[in-house]
Design a protein that fits this description.
Hypothetical Protein Aq_1857, Chain: A; mainly beta; globular; six-stranded mixed beta sheet; 9 strands; single chain
């Protein structure tokens, strides 16, 4: 399984692609210490969580996903919703991140949530 992050998406993520941060591709289903609410709809909702590199996320996010920017963390069971080749890209009209498989748009609005700001506030 691999996630291609386009150059446009890398630009949006640039300030988080540093050694003291780790990135989680989170299936927002209400499970895990960073989830406050899950989606009850039939559609899938993803977000990119930015956490400190020292943060222990192994209990909920022990899965990994290879990408063009390195390893991302995921909930192990969330791989059942992902295809072998995924793409994270920017919608230039709306300036939002979208998650795509080869055959469909998985989530048109993948938010970036900087948890480090919430924890350190």
């Amino acid at each position: 399984m691999f996630l291609t992050i386009t150059d446009a998406a890398k630009e949006k993520l640039a300030k988080y692609l540093v050694a003291d941060k780790q990135i989680i591709l989170d299936l927002d289903d209400g499970v895990g210490k960073f989830s406050k609410v899950g989606s009850c709809a039939l559609n899938l909702s993803y977000r990119l969580l930015i956490v400190d590199a020292a943060e222990d996320i192994s209990e909920d996010y022990s899965g990994t996903l290879d990408s063009t920017v390195g390893t991302l963390h995921i909930k192990p069971y969330s791989t059942q919703y992902l295809d072998e080749d995924m793409r994270l890209d920017v919608n230039p009209r709306l300036n939002t991140l979208g998650l795509f498989s080869e055959s469909e748009q998985m989530d048109p609005n993948v938010n970036i949530v900087d948890i480090t700001k919430e924890i350190n506030a």
